[in-house]
Amino acid sequence: MEMKLYDMFGIDTLRDRQTALLVIREISEIPNSCTVKIDFAHIIFASRSFCHELLVGLKDRKNISFQNVNTEVKNMMIAALKKPNIPITDPIKVTAIS
Which residue in 9, 11, 38, 84 has the most C-beta neighbors within 10 A? Predict the structure, then answer.
């Protein structure tokens, strides 16, 4: 089965976790034995939160592949699974700043 994200959402930018959850929900209805190809054709940007939610939500699925992923989206997927580089030693100061 192939899921074309641009056709599914009609936009070239995937910005939030809710969007990723819709993809995960669709895939959850497909048997694990089936191969699912997620097509990123025409997607020019995917946020870190979208990528994180998608990758974490699909981590237990086998037979998933990503196609037509541009360099920016690929780099965001890599970044989504890395820990933040900024150490937070005093959460009170961080809360006061925001």
Answer: 38
Structural domains of the chain, count:
1
Write down the H helix ranges in 11-90.
17-28, 48-57, 71-80
> Among 7, 2, 67, which Cα is nearest to 35's?
2
Single pTM value for the model? 0.80
Angle value at C-alpha 16, between 14 and 22, nearest 5 degrees: 80
Return per-residue pLDDT of the chain as tens, 98 residues: 999 999 999 999 999 999 999 999 999 999 989 999 999 999 999 999 999 999 999 988 888 999 999 999 999 999 988 866 555 555 554 444 44
State how far the Cα of 38 lies from the Cα of 13, in Å rounded to an integer: 15
Q: Which residue range is the domain that position 14 belongs to?
A: 2-97
**60 φ, ψ (degrees, to nearest 5):** -90, -5
